[in-house]
Amino acid sequence: MKGELSALLNFLTPSIVEMRQLPDRVEPDGLPILSPGPSDRPPMTDRMPLHLPGAWVRLLSYYQDMGVEIPRKREWSQVVFRSFDLNSFACGLAYSDPQHPAIGFGFMDSVKISGFELMSSLVLYRGLQRAVVLFQDELDASVLARWKQMAQEIRQNLYRLYDSAIGGYVEGSHQGHQFSVWGNGLAYSLAPDDSKRRIFEFYQKNRSKIFRSGYTRQMAEPSGWEGPGQPKLLYQNGGFWGTGTGYVLPVLYDHDPTAALELANDLVQNLPKVDYCEWLDPVNSTPSGAMGFLEAFRFPPLGSEVFWKRGH
To answer: How would you class 7 by CB atoms within 10 Å of its CB: exposed for 0-12, middle for 13-18, buried for 19 or more?
Structure first.
């Protein structure tokens, strides 16, 4: 496994380290794609998604923790540095200008949520923390200190995205001012105790709207995300995703372990029936998107009772 991971990182590195900003992905032939969406269509944006620096740092950090040597590490630090600097922040949070909205968190890229943006802020929060450790020998102390401060400011300003009338954090302070099912799961560990209870209560109250066959929707409203983009597209504006279930399970487990186990088992039992698909169509629950998208769940003990009893 270590050898395979090392080979993959050696393949990715030449495509990335000399770029001005981190790409959304790298194609099998080594071509870096800077914008989400199909590579054979016009780009969705002229900028990278807001969350990308945090996502790439997570990859590098995990590989290093598994003993993989990062090739050209100083060059990696420079492209990460440039990418963090290219991001827009306001009041400490990732910010998407409503007049020219950027793409935020990649799993929501077909809907241009704007204003302060929750999921991107949270991914960048952990990305900045990881980057301080990952690149401590490659970057000046002043850069690392600034990244620490940026992470602290994200945490200190999350309250700006909390809406007490809704009962949780909204995905965007402007467009997409709705309870973020995935985002509240990710923000849960940073929330005050009274907010944690209200987040759980929202999940419980809206179970039939946001959970299906173990898959989890991004929002509870049947109309989808409110904002510019593709409101009739069921993909990210209404579909149920296996990816999102991992965000909500810790919340459920903290308040109702039985409910968490039921959701996890529901997901694992249904995955083979839907060919481990990327998402479920909200109208008729048919498997959609990439098939085999959640292949990792083929391997035990993910989702099993033993897995959960061990506190994972």
So the answer is: exposed
Q: Is the pLDDT of residue 303 over 60?
A: no
Q: For 229, which DSSP code?
A: B
Q: Which segments of 1-82 are extended strands (E)?
A: 25-26, 32-33
Cβ neighbours for 18, distance < 8 A, ≥ 6 positions apart? 75, 79
* DSSP structure string for 75-127: HHHHHHHHHHHHS-EETTEEEE-TTSPPP-SGGGTTB---EEBHHHHHHHHHH
Confidence of residue 154 (pLDDT cuts 50, 70, 90): very high
Q: Tell me 159's DSSP state.
A: G
Q: How far apart are CA 282 and CA 84, in angstroms?
A: 35
Checking if the pLDDT of 305 tops 50, the result is: no
For 84-93, how does the pLDDT look when each residue is reduced to its tens digit (9 = 90+)?
A: 999 999 999 9
| 269: nearest Cα among 294, 252, 244 | 294
User: What does the block give as tokens for 260?
Assistant: 């968490």
Structure pTM? 0.90
* Both tokens assigned to 14: 């030449």
CB 267 within 8 A of CB 303: yes
* Closest listed residue to residue 127, CA positions, set 158, 94, 96: 94
The mean predicted confidence, pLDDT, of the chain is 89
Give the sign of the dihedral formed by CA 293, CA 297, CA 303, CA 309. Answer: negative
State the DSSP code for 293.
T
Q: Which pLDDT tens digit goes with each residue over 191-237?
A: 999 999 999 999 999 999 999 999 999 999 888 888 655 556 677 78
8 Å CB contact between 160 and 169? no
Using only C-alpha atoms, the chain has a radius of gyration, in whole angstroms, of 19
